[in-house]
Amino acid sequence: MSFCAWISAHYEEQGPVKWLAFVLEMIAAITLFLLMLLTCSDVFGRYFLANSIDGTTELTEIALAILIFAEMPIITWRGGHVVVDILDRMLGGTIIKLLGLLSAFLIASSLYFIATQIFFLAQRSFRRDEVTEFLQLPVGLIVEYIAYMSWITAAGMITYGVYRLLFLSRE
After folding, report:
1. What is the DSSP letter of 84?
2. Distance between the two ends of the chain, CA-based, in angstroms?
3. 10-40, pLDDT tens digit by residue?
4. Would you give the distance in Å from CA 29 to the centre of its chain?
């Protein structure tokens, strides 16, 4: 089986979204693996060598940010968020679809606004040369990454809402 056939068999998304999902899941998987290695090494060093790895807390925080924000666009596109459907039986299908589109628009707008504010904070961190406490890593890089991933998630949310309206409304 070729690599492209494997991707097509394991990802239900179409077009460039399929490849974006693959790349983001690879980033998340590699980050999770490195986080596991870091934690195991730190615990081993702490208990058997009486010396832990310096900056483990900072690296763990950064890895969690990378992991969470790499998966956020994928989960959003796949509609994997928690949905409360208490009123679905009382309201008609058209109203439910309109409310779904309204929520997609509100979530995408909120994510866009939040990403803009986060990007502003990243630029301020760069101007001030802010770095982490122990490892002296630039804070602006991870904050900027969070802003970009939030923008991608906002775009995914709005395209998912339109996709649901146009293609899944016939179910």
Report:
1. -
2. 33
3. 777 777 778 888 889 999 999 999 999 999 9
4. 12
